[in-house]
Write a structure and sequence with these properties.
single chain; 501 residues; mainly alpha; two-stranded antiparallel sheet; globular
């Protein structure tokens, strides 16, 4: 009850007219920056950080609450409409979301994304308010062996589930891992696969890879077909910016499952919401295969609902981990930590004692920001969707320009422009030959985590490999993975047997 009374005091601060204005401005600007390809939610927070320096701390962080969730929705908006996610958190949403958009269901996909963001963020933020100390204990249970098991689970499960061909899925995963190991080895300090190019010593940015594989690859794919398929000059857009009762019932279980995936990962420092979003995507795809009329590959609404709820649930609990532990579990949270330090504040247990007014006003503003995001973006879904009515040769030319600007803005390096072009050609070739893209992205995102965790675990055990299966968490993860593989193999054998008959 004490938490509830403190939260109500926070609402009394956050619901003043000026603070409501800051939440609105933050949500609007966060969405606007998140929509730009290559920038994303973390860049939205970074770019708007200087804007808040003239505000008092409460007003500044209330504005950041709007930026925080607005940027995440902006990431998904461009992923759904243009197959160009603003950040890696929205990659899993993109696969089915863009298919929905190409079938004329862009407003429904955006509505699914907005409602999923609201549900995931609302449930996660509620748990942060009442159970932050308990959630924080989950992070303590994960060591290097557990992180490695988690990464292996994500690798194999994704590669085997998202493609009809396991060989293609594993090949795509290998490509992602190969891209992930370019640069300086963080443990030995040796350069790897850099061709002695100094600009590659820091590795290939996730932004460069995401834009190259998903955005430029899509641009080249469309360009190769634009004269053969005149239907590509325009996409029909249905103007209904809400979900029908049937669509809502279809999406609701996925929203809840995605939220369940995302909540624990907000307090586990694995780099962001990529892991739970891909796990939610893989789960929904696996469940879809059991249905009489599988929808994945045709614009499945659950393929948008699950990852979107997972991503925002992770972001909600990540804010709790930042406030309660001072632990930034994502790039966006790390920038928020820098914002706290700019005001002379250090997140952690003492923050609740020394600055309770700020903390509870910020937590209240997270709720307000979610509601503001829903109010702001649901009516605008048809407007965003009208971007698809622009003739393809104009639209994709503009996307290419924004991709180049987004990539160059992150590093100001011409090398990144060359690399993103080469990766774009690779993405085009993979599309042409039917390789799945999800294993590539999860290999890029989790490859460094898997490598570092494996090496740290082996060094801490003196080379004893039994440490990799020495805890209940690792045994559970490997056990579930084995069940997934057995089921996948059984399903493929049955499908082949039915074809032979």
């Amino acid at each position: 009850m004490e938490s509830l009374s403190l939260l109500l005091e926070g609402f009394s601060q956050a619901l003043t007219p000026i603070n409501l204005l800051w939440v609105f401005v933050g949500a609007f600007l966060g969405t606007a920056v998140g929509v730009l390809p290559g920038l994303g939610s973390s860049m939205a927070v970074a770019l708007l950080l200087p804007v808040t320096f003239s505000l008092d701390p409460v007003g500044a962080f209330i504005m950041f609450a709007g930026v925080y969730f607005g940027g995440l929705f902006g990431d998904s908006t461009m992923g759904i409409l243009m197959n160009t996610p603003g950040g890696s958190t929205a990659i899993a949403t993109t696969f089915e979301g863009h298919r929905m958009a190409k079938l004329g269901r862009a407003p429904q996909a955006l509505a699914t994304s907005a409602i999923g963001a609201f549900i995931g963020g609302l449930l996660a933020t509620t748990l942060v308010v009442f159970f932050a100390p308990k959630l924080a204990e989950l992070a303590v249970m994960f060591g290097p062996a557990e992180y490695f098991a988690l990464a292996v689970f994500a690798f194999i499960a994704t590669a085997s589930v998202v493609s009809d061909s396991v060989a293609k899925g594993l090949s795509a995963l290998a490509i992602g891992l190969a891209l992930a190991v370019v640069g300086i080895d963080g443990i030995s300090g040796a350069s790897r696969f850099t061709a002695d190019v100094p600009q590659l010593f820091d590795g290939i940015s996730i932004i460069v890879i995401t834009v190259g594989i998903l955005a430029l690859g899509e641009v080249l794919h469309v360009a190769s077909r634009i004269h053969r398929d005149e239907k590509l000059t325009a996409v029909a857009v249905s103007g209904r910016p809400y979900l029908s009762r049937k669509e809502f019932r279809e999406a609701l279980p996925a929203w809840l499952r995605g939220t369940a995936f995302g909540i624990p990962f907000g307090v586990i420092p694995v780099g962001g919401a990529e892991v739970p979003t891909f796990m939610a995507y893989g789960t929904e795809r696996a469940l879809d295969r059991k249905r009489k009329d599988p929808q994945f590959g045709k614009g499945a609404i659950r393929g948008v609902a699950g990852p979107e709820a997972a991503g925002n649930a992770t972001s909600g609990t990540a804010m709790g981990a930042l406030l309660a532990l001072g632990l930034p579990t994502s790039a966006t949270a790390a920038i928020m930590l820098a914002a706290f330090q700019q005001y002379g504040l250090q997140p952690g247990p003492m923050l609740f004692e020394r600055n309770p007014d700020l903390v509870w006003a910020l937590l209240a503003s997270l709720f307000i920001g979610l509601v503001m995001l829903l109010i702001l973006n649901l009516p605008f879904a048809p407007l965003w969707a009208k971007l698809l009515l622009i003739p393809k040769h104009y639209l994709y030319s503009g996307i290419t320009v924004f991709c180049a600007l987004g990539v160059y803005a992150t590093s100001a390096a011409v090398t990144d422009l060359v690399v993103v072009l080469l990766i774009g050609v690779l993405g085009f070739a993979l599309r042409r030959h039917g390789f799945p893209l999800a294993p590539i992205m999860i290999g890029v995102v989790l490859g460094p985590l898997a490598e570092t965790s494996l090496r740290n675990a082996m060094m801490s055990s003196g080379g004893d490999a039994s440490i990799l299966v020495g805890s209940p968490i690792t045994l559970t993860l490997y056990g579930v993975l084995a069940l997934v593989l057995v089921y996948t193999a059984w399903r493929k054998v049955n499908a082949r047997a039915r074809q032979d008959v």
